[in-house]
Amino acid sequence: MPIRPHRTIPAIACPVNKTQIAEFYSRLAAANPAPATELEYATPFQLLVAVILSAQATDVGVNRATARLFAVAPTAEAMLALGEVGLAEYIRTIGLFRTKARNVIAACRLLVERHGGAVPEERAALEALPGVGRKTANVVLNTAFGQPTIAVDTHIFRVGNRTGLAPGKTPLAVEQKLLKVTPPQFARDAHHWLILHGRYVCKARKPECGRCVVADLCQYEGKAA
Predict the structure, then answer these.
(1) Is the CATH code 1.10.340.30 the one for domain 44-143?
(2) Contacts of 24 (CB under 8 A, 6+ apart)
(3) Is 103 exposed, middle or buried (0-12, 13-18, 19+ CB in 10 A)?
């Protein structure tokens, strides 16, 4: 889902301080010691494709399509051989499937031509691929290669602003603030903790403050008692 920074950002009393931030992450870590993406994949290439397909789509819907797709085209070479039309048949249940098929096939072509079919571990090389922007590159760098990046989607954008953890008017501003304030020991898993917290607890319309493990640290003025 695309982020619309022009939407009203929840009012924040004040950003949380350094001690509170460390406690914030400590509690998320205790509640979920091994956070992981909900996209299903077996290789960095499959993760890259799944993330490209996930734009404006649910992880559940993407997983349903890629289960069939990866069975016949698990590599860049095999997917390139499918072509746009062939790939589209596997992903037509996903929004914008024609555009995504075109981007994935173009990305596969570059992966084969420039990287021997492997997914590069450098941001610039990833962002040079069709359909791959900063957020997608951050997900791949973090999830596939363990780099301490944070991909700010609509959930992390909301959590960063609503809690006071990393207020910002744009996804990039929130990302930069999170990278600055997140303690090193939590940097690798911060992305997944925050996105899962936003998806299942700190929801957009009805945040479940009553079962939030960081409710007392949150600066959201509208939080439930």
Answers:
(1) yes
(2) 16, 163, 165, 214, 217
(3) buried
15 band by pLDDT with thresholds 50, 70 and 90: low
Q: Which residues have a catalytic role annotated?
A: 135, 153
Structure tokens at 78: 């095999």
Whole-angstrom distance, CA of residue 68 vs CA of residue 33: 31
What stretches of the chain show up as alpha helix (H) in DSSP?
A: 18-31, 44-53, 59-72, 76-91, 97-115, 123-127, 134-143, 154-163, 171-181, 190-200
pTM score > 0.70 for this model? yes
Instruction: Check residue 225 and give its pLDDT.
Output: 57
Residue 190's Cβ-side half-sphere holds a number of Cα atoms within 13 Å equal to 31
- Closest to 53 measured CA to CA, from 149, 172, 111, 136: 136
Please provide the average confidence, as pLDDT, over all residues in the chain. Answer: 92
The model's pLDDT over 110-137, given as tens digits with 9 standing for 90+, comes to: 999 999 999 999 999 999 999 999 999 9
- Provide the residue ranges of all domains of the chain, joining segments of one domain with +: 18-35+149-217, 44-143
Q: What are phi and psi of 98, to 5 degrees?
A: -70, -45
CATH code of 18-35+149-217, in short, is 1.10.1670.10
CB 185 within 8 A of CB 170: no
| Cα 102 from Cα 40, distance rounded (Å) | 22
